[in-house]
Specification:
This protein is an alpha/beta fold. It has a single domain (2-208), classed as Rossmann fold (3-Layer(aba) Sandwich), CATH 3.40.50. It is 29% helix and 25% strand. The chain has 7 helices and 9 strands, in the order H-H-H-E-E-H-E-H-E-H-E-E-H-E-E-E. The protein has helices spanning 2-17, 19-22, 29-37, 69-79, 96-104, 115-127, 164-168; strands at residues 58-61, 64-66, 86-90, 107-112, 133-137, 150-155, 170-180, 187-194, 200-208. Strand 3, helix 5 (96-104) and strand 4 (107-112) form a beta-alpha-beta unit. Helix 1 (2-17) packs across helix 4 and helix 3 packs across helix 5. Bound molecules: S-adenosyl-L-homocysteine. Residues 64-67, 90-91, 93-94, 96-97, 111-114, 117, 139-141, 156-157, 211, 213-214, 219, 223 line the site of S-adenosyl-L-homocysteine. S-adenosyl-L-homocysteine binds at residues 64-67, 90-91, 93-94, 96-97, 111-114, 117, 139-141, 156-157, 211, 213-214, 219, 223.
């Protein structure tokens, strides 16, 4: 498919362009193969499908977006997975990142705070036969302790700080890939590694722009923070 080839070459081009920041001139073959296998248009609203293979974010409803293909590929690469891994994603959104991960690891768990998005993502993943992804609705700040510890955790919404629950739910030596920063201000994509002494080592990879990771107290009635109605 011509559009898919174009998307893959756009990712390769942007990786080269940002190599001084991300510290590599190419992503792993495994990640690029996964990007090639997953039909991104299946995760995008029908009316916007002409944008499915462009290297940009696309709105998916509920004020959310499916991330740019380059960012999905880069974050998957930074997670540094093995086929036997069990990983956790926070912010299922369309389910596209989860689909890419499903090609890279044994089992994917993913948490989404907007119930309608979780349902839609589940349907799309099921239709495509990606059966190693389990999605639940809830507040990702708390992680998913029942399946912990994880071989990797990826957060696809910007957090103001690193949630301690996510560090607690990582294996020693495993990585958390997370955009850190406040909404509508500078955010940095970070790789956080859990060291044997329980301490963490952080590496700042790239400036990014993500939708916010909402705080738990705001998630019961709405997925948007309500600044006029503090607890
Ligand atoms: N990974 C997605 C893109 C995610 S956009 C994809 O591949 O399409 C970020 C998502 O994080 C949104 O769907 C948003 O609703 C969700 N989100 C925001 N705060 C959250 C929280 N506290 N817990 C779980 N999901 C959250």
């Amino acid at each position: 498919m011509k559009e898919m080839r174009q998307m893959l070459s756009d990712i390769e081009w942007e990786v080269k362009l940002t190599r001084s920041m991300i510290g590599k001139a190419a992503l792993s073959d495994r990640v690029m193969a996964a990007m090639k296998q997953v039909p991104r248009h299946k995760f995008i609203p029908k009316a916007l499908r002409e944008y499915a293979y462009q290297n940009g974010p696309v709105p998916i409803g509920f004020g959310q977006t499916i991330s740019q293909p380059y960012i999905v590929a880069l974050m998957s690469d930074l997670l540094d997975t093995k086929p036997s891994d069990v990983v956790l994603e926070i912010g299922t959104g369309s389910g596209y990142q989860a689909a890419i991960l499903s090609k890279l690891v044994r089992q994917v768990y993913s948490i989404e705070v907007v119930e309608e998005l979780a349902t839609m993502a589940r349907t799309h993943l099921h239709e495509l036969g990606y059966n190693n992804v389990e999605i639940r609705t809830g507040d990702g700040n708390l992680g998913w302790p029942e399946h912990a510890p994880y071989d990797g955790i990826i957060v696809t919404a910007a957090a103001p700080h690193i949630p301690q629950s996510l560090i607690d739910q990582l294996h020693t030596g495993a990585r958390l890939v997370i955009p850190l920063g406040l909404p509508y201000s500078a955010q940095e994509l970070m790789v956080v590694e859990k060291k044997p002494d329980g301490k963490i080592e952080t590496q700042d990879v790239l400036s990014v722009a993500f939708v916010p990771l909402v705080e738990g107290r705001n998630t019961s009635s709405s997925h948007q923070p309500d600044r006029h109605n503090p607890m």
